[in-house]
Amino acid sequence: MNFILSIDTEADNQWDHGRGLTTENIRFVPRFQELCNKYQIKPTYLVTSEVCEDSFAREIFCEYIENDEAEIGAHLHSWTTPPFMNRDGYRYNDRNHAFASELPDDLLFNKLRYLTDQISTSFGRRPTSFRSGRYGFNESVAKTLIANEYVVDSSITPYIDWSSLKGIPGLKGGPDFRESRPFPYTYTHNGSTLLEIPVTVVPTKFPLNKDNRFTGFYFNNVNKNFILRSIRSMFFRYQPLWLRPFPWMSLQLLDEVIKEAMNLKLPYIVMIFHSSELMPNCSIYRADSEAVEKLYELLEGFFALLTFYKVHSVSLTEAAHRYELVTGTELSLRYV
User: What count of Cα atoms within 13 Å lies in the side-chain half-sphere of residue 216?
Assistant: First the structure.
């Protein structure tokens, strides 16, 4: 099993709709990269359009790429990536943050092409890994990634339903991943293949982690069934568990995720969080310096756990390459 550390690298306070975009949080990345280097962790920074315009981001990420310390991938925020349209949900930094999975195919293609070219120009390397903003992923997004020569996506969040969250007014909102599972799989279109490596989200409590029929029934019905909601409050709080350093997350819970992933024989575990969490008062998750220090304490403890379990770090594209070698699946796209 290998570990993938993916950082959604984006503007400050991205949850505040309609505000001006700043990228001060990028100044806090070098300290984080030093911690990664200490434990031989190779993060994948999935960057948005506005980060490509930041001169400090270009300086540090080019250095990390040159030293083979990190990978730079793409993170599509459709509300900050050109081109735009003068309609609700399609404007620059619109208060309605559209899911990529809601966009018309031609607009989605043009936005992804624009972001891909931006990253190539800013960091001197064409991106081959991707995550969709707000996890807005479906088959149309997969086909568009293949058309733009991406190798690997990590937008799927198993067991999680985002459909109650709205994007473009009048459309259906976010994707429903309740039927998805944490194992990698592939999409093929026009003879080319894209690897999906989901974010690691797993149930760790019995019987959710043992009985697939009960697990499916539970996650499909818990939000609309009083009895199941009561069971959740008593026994299944935080289930399923994300491999993500939420403020309430503990080292013990992260250890539970690792052990469950080992039991499942997952080839990869994928951690996710945002670059804004590295800066005090730049994220809803880290309100002050003390909260950021707790994040670093948790991350260092987790990295030490990985060392103990002999779980080695790879970037998203390196993981795709290994998957290709082990399974014989030809992703048929170039690695750069």
Answer: 5
Q: For residue 280, what are its two tokens?
A: 């005090």
| Whole-angstrom distance, CA of residue 199 vs CA of residue 270 | 5
Q: How far apart are CA 166 and CA 77, in angstroms?
A: 15
Query: What digits encode the pLDDT tens for the residues 126-171?
Result: 999 999 999 999 999 999 999 999 999 999 999 999 999 999 999 9
Higher pLDDT, 225 or 183: 183
- What is the rounded distance in angstroms from the CA atom of residue 324 to the CA atom of residue 311? 19
pLDDT interval class at 218 (50, 70, 90): confident
How many alpha carbons fall within 13 Å on the CB side of residue 210? Answer: 3
- Is this model's pTM higher than 0.85 or not? yes
Contact 227, 174 (CB under 8 A): no
DSSP state letter for 92 = T
**Cis-peptide into 207, omega within 30 deg:** yes
DSSP H or E segment with residue 272:
strand 268-274
**300/296 Cα distance (integer angstroms):** 6
